[in-house]
Description:
The protein is 46% helix and 0% strand. Helix 2 crosses helix 3 (56-66). It is elongated and about 40 Å long. By secondary structure, the chain is an all-alpha fold. The longest helix has 15 residues, at 15-29. It contains three helices and no strands.
Amino acid sequence: MKIPDDMSFGDASTLGVGVVTVGQGMYQSTGLPWPKVGKESVERNRLILIYGGSTATGAYGIQSAKL
Length: 67
């Protein structure tokens, strides 16, 4: 994976941990359906509370929930 020029290697190395944590928390543990990029979701009005949304992993969770 190419790292953007304005991102350090250290910053890029932490991306995978946050994404995997969100995946396990939102989809593996709760059983939510995986997001379908580019397709309409059948269930649009489900409420999801992301406690700690101001953290890096919380921001990933918010972005993933919006999908």
